[in-house]
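Appendix C: a fully annotated inverse folding record. The material below is reproduced so that readers can follow the format used throughout the book. The structure is listed first as tokens, followed by the designed sequence.
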């Protein structure tokens, strides 16, 4: 697929992690793009994403991690009036454990429902997990290594993770990512205003059960954006305006048409499936984020 090369470049030449001196408790994102889908056909894509995280300190070594992620994607096909609503709801249940002075680990279970939410059945429920080990190299530098896996309608996806978190000495530059899944780089131009870029990728599937269709959609998404951010409430509340490039593709397949194991976007045994729709063409997007950020130093 066309995204293999781009994901490979991101994976080999960009690194980052989740380790940081703050945690984004709440994040709400809205993105809108118009993707071409076949000859003289356009699809308006509205993507809503909500994330809620809450860390609970058990002792000086153990932190309980709980959260919820919900995402809705509305596909409006032109010139027809057909719409598709794809919804994903996921629980994030895990722990962060301090193994030693330098090493710590984050282990999270990720059960989810991903479908059009018509006639829920076994194909709508999927299960994943992520394990990340991080190494404290310096006070302002951490490295991470890990693995993400999830059962999907097309098979099992496996994603190696390599990462880095860095904060400059003057605290103006932040690099924070978990690649190839996500990345955020920002630079403070003042006490409240900053500019930056972010990257969000996903490989997941949605069961389509409307009218007993017995189909699924495989989403392969790379969204790269540039943003301007303004902070309120001592920068606890961030408002971001974004513009970027959306390469998301939504492939439609029969439910029994699978690939087995997929590493990143590469099918280990090859992809012999019969795709039922045409490939989407990348396009610009506009969007925005609202983020509530908690300073972890207040927990010490």
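Designed amino acids, in order:
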């Amino acid at each position: 697929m066309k995204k293999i090369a781009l994901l490979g470049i991101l994976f080999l030449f960009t690194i980052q992690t989740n380790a940081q001196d703050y945690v984004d408790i709440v994040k709400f994102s809205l993105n809108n793009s118009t993707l071409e889908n076949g000859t003289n056909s356009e699809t308006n894509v509205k993507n809503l994403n909500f994330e809620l995280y809450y860390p609970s300190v058990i002792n000086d070594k153990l932190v309980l991690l709980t959260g919820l992620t919900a995402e809705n994607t509305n596909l409006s096909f032109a010139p027809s009036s057909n719409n598709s609503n794809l919804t994903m709801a996921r629980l994030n249940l895990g722990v962060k454990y301090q193994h030693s002075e330098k090493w710590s680990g984050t282990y999270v279970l990720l059960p989810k429902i991903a479908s059009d939410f018509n006639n829920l059945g076994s194909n709508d429920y999927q299960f994943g997990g992520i394990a990340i080990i991080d190494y404290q190299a310096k006070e302002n530098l951490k490295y991470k290594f890990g693995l993400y896996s999830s059962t999907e309608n097309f098979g099992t996806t496996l994603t190696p993770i390599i990462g880095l978190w860095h904060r400059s000495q003057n605290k103006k530059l932040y690099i924070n990512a978990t690649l190839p899944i996500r990345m955020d780089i920002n630079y403070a131009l003042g006490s409240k205003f900053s500019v930056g870029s972010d990257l969000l990728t996903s490989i997941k599937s949605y069961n389509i059960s409307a009218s007993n269709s017995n189909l699924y959609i495989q989403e392969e998404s790379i969204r790269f954006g540039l943003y301007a951010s303004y902070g309120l409430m001592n920068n606890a509340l961030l408002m971001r305006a974004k513009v970027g490039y959306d390469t998301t593709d939504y492939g439609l397949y029969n439910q029994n048409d699978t690939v087995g194991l997929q590493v990143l976007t590469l099918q280990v045994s090859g992809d012999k499936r019969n795709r039922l729709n045409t490939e989407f063409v990348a396009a610009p997007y506009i969007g925005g984020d609202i983020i509530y950020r908690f300073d972890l130093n207040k927990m010490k």
